[in-house]
Design brief:
The protein has helices spanning 13-27, 41-51, 65-76, 94-103, 125-135, 183-191, 203-211, 224-240, 242-262, 287-297, 326-339, 345-355, and strands spanning 32-36, 57-62, 80-85, 107-113, 115-116, 121-122, 138-142, 161-165, 177-181, 266-267, 279-283, 303-305, 314-318. The chain is α/β, with parallel strands linked by helices. The longest helix is centred in the C-terminal third of the chain and has 21 residues, at 242-262. It is globular.
Length: 356
């Protein structure tokens, strides 16, 4: 009748708080950290609905599909939205953001995705944060795909709201997420009469009832298994060392690009500096068909076709978490080679050499 995932003792407030401290250490932040009991869309929407309101103006930087979602939430909250969109095979620049802010001095909220796993690009947050800080706007960063895959320094970069999820590079569960919140952001939330209260979306509820209460009493029963899994993946990262985790993801990206080049496949994101370490996207004709053939050859290969309109021209190689390994990258390249009727030997050799 016993099972290791059942009949567990309740998760105490003390242990919940210790897991929050683990997230804060991972982010290197002195800001408050709130662990939210759901996938990262929960705190992302909570941040937007708390920080935006009628009369505010938001700069929504769109470098992938999530930017569209953020824009919709911002408009729903009553904000006027200025969209800064760039092609999904590139990154936005700090200069572009600075120009947009100068053209709209009324902007008081900025939303950005750090790394786009769906399109394989990553944005220069340090440069962008400098521009946003000089302007004085509140800065929200979606770091779900970047945390654990590339450097993430929310305090140094002037990020007021840094949202993470554990399901990608951290190698953890999808059903729990977290956000670091600056004092400026808390003040902004408190001044917003439309900010969610007595709601699952409410971050202010956590501030007032959990943080200000000394982290003694949880708001509701936590997602026990997800919290324990988050604790386990934090421990695993600490055991490997964050620098080692970051280098493993960088090596996986280098190896994938090198192996794809040996197969004659061009990267979707042309500039290596703009390519995310969490996933590599490739330009492939009839991508959906190629992926189907590749997965028929190796169902476990970490491959997917692009979403929506990109399904016929993009293949995504996911190399995050446990898949940031020579074996997983080799499996993806081998499956792609078979789908394209190519010899995988050169691709595997190039990947091995690039891994270093």
């Amino acid at each position: 009748m016993t099972h290791p995932l059942l009949d567990l003792p309740p998760l105490t407030a003390e242990r919940f708080a210790s897991i929050e401290q683990g997230v804060a250490r991972l982010l290197g932040t002195r800001q408050d950290v709130v662990i939210t009991q759901g996938e990262a869309l929960l705190p992302l929407e909570g941040c937007i609905r708390s920080g935006a309101r009628p009369g505010s103006t938001a700069l929504n930087i769109v470098t992938g599909p999530y930017g569209t979602t953020f824009g919709n939430w911002l408009r729903d909250a009553g904000a006027r939205v200025v969209d800064l969109a760039v092609p999904f095979d590139t990154a936005v620049t700090g200069e572009q953001v600075a120009r947009a802010l100068a053209a709209h001095p009324e902007i008081d909220f900025v939303s950005l995705v750090h790394a786009e796993a769906a399109t394989g690009n990553t944005n220069p947050v340090a440069e962008i944060g400098e521009a946003v800080r000089a302007h004085g706007a509140l800065f929200m960063l979606d770091a779900v795909a970047s945390v654990g895959a590339e450097p993430l320094l929310p305090d140094a970069w002037g990020v007021d709201l840094c949202v993470i999820g554990a399901q990608k590079a951290m190698g953890g569960p999808a059903g729990v997420s977290a956000v670091s919140v600056s004092d400026r952001a808390w003040a902004r939330f408190a001044e917003n009469p439309a900010a969610p209260r007595r709601s699952y979306l409410s971050l202010l509820d956590w501030k007032e009832r959990w943080i200000d209460g000394g982290r003694k009493t949880l708001l509701h029963a936590p997602a026990q298994l997800e919290m324990l899994a988050l604790e386990a993946c934090l421990d695993r990262i600490a055991g490997e060392g964050l620098a080692g985790v970051l280098e493993r993801h960088a090596a996986a990206a280098r190896a994938t690009r090198a192996g794809a080049a040996a197969l004659g496949i061009a990267p979707w994101v042309g500039l290596t500096a703009q390519a995310a370490p969490v996933a590599t996207t490739l330009r492939v004709a009839d991508a959906s068909l190629v992926v189907a053939k590749a997965l028929a050859a190796d169902p476990a290969a970490p491959l997917a076709a692009g979403g929506g309109a990109l399904a016929q021209e993009m293949v995504r190689v996911n190399h995050y978490g446990p898949a940031a390994s020579p074996e997983a990258v080799g499996a993806a390249l081998g499956a792609l080679a078979r789908a394209l009727d190519a010899d995988p030997a050169a691709a595997l050799a190039a990947a091995s050499a690039a891994w270093g």
